[in-house]
């Protein structure tokens, strides 16, 4: 929690203060040299894809917004790293709000996809390999940067049940589809979920019953409810990596 010695604009609505631990060398040199507090913010605009270059960021700013910038340090095109891990230390129990690295088990498969149809077929294959558990819902935790093909992967799963109208639920958080014998497929997009309180209002636990399929896009954000999902469901972790304009690397862990 914040000691309220900083500008209130830097505090969250709950009065907490976020602290960033950077891994980027130039930022570490800057902080060590300046030796005073530095305020940082994300370069991503709400609901937009991440920026990996100065040119990309500036192209989305208005003239008025650009006037607020005093200095730009251009380090070239940044690596396409996944979002940072976010840990909540404001309570007695430490909570991971956004998981940067998932502790996978030893069972792993890797696939390479060069087309939309290949990605869908990979999804169908993984579904068929894991759908026989009658005692738990099947839960896909899908990670990957913007444009990696997460929604395409979910579409492949949907097509296996005859669902051909799947769209990304980014702004409504999740869509519910009927599959068979009163069972459901739930397509969840956690892109805009930032606070643990938001999970409480989603009501996802009501879907954690045998026969249901849950697909989480931006799965690195499930940290707040990962223990619930592990306890009630069969989890399949899917990591989608952007390799080229058309090529994707898909790693599946159980």
UniProtKB/TrEMBL annotation:
Family statement: Belongs to the TsaE family.
Protein name, as recorded: tRNA threonylcarbamoyladenosine biosynthesis protein TsaE
Organism: Candidatus Roizmanbacteria bacterium CG07_land_8_20_14_0_80_34_15
UniProt domain YrdC-like: residue ranges: 1-102
Cellular localisation: Cytoplasm
Gene Ontology terms: biological process: tRNA threonylcarbamoyladenosine modification
An MF annotation (GO) of this entry: double-stranded RNA binding
One Gene Ontology term, aspect cellular component: cytoplasm
Main subcellular location of this protein, as a coarse class: cytoplasm
Keywords: ATP-binding, Cytoplasm, Magnesium, Metal-binding, Nucleotide-binding, Transferase, tRNA processing
InterPro entries: DHBP_synth_RibB-like_a/b_dom (IPR017945), P-loop_NTPase (IPR027417), Sua5-like_dom (IPR006070), T6A_TsaE (IPR003442)
Highest rank taxon of the organism: Bacteria
